[in-house]
Amino acid sequence: MDKKNIVVLEDDRHIAKLLEFKLSSVGYNIKWFESPENVLDHISLDRPDLIISDVMMPYQNGIDFLKIVKANEDVKDIPVILLTALGHEESVIKGLDAGATDYITKPFSTAELMLRVKKALIS
Questions:
Q1: Do 104 and 81 form a contact (C-beta atoms < 8 A)?
Q2: pLDDT in the model for residue 85
């Protein structure tokens, strides 16, 4: 089985390192970005199998980034999981309506995250 490539877009270094550790420990290749700049260029050149994106980030939020991804013909079919502290219904609906494959609220269970990643990769 090929190793799956996952792009993590997360401005919190501690959460990013946790994601990197957990995901790489089960065989995924992880590329981490702290902000949305250059991510679209990267995913166009080195297409990942999945994107995990925070929503609340400086300069550009994850929903706007998701909309850009979904509007790009070359990468619009890459599954995107939103990972955020925004757990109220309106935020969840906004994220899913913008094209997110899944929506996970912080704090999150790493076991649940791993199952949701696995599910997104086989969908």
A1: yes
A2: 86
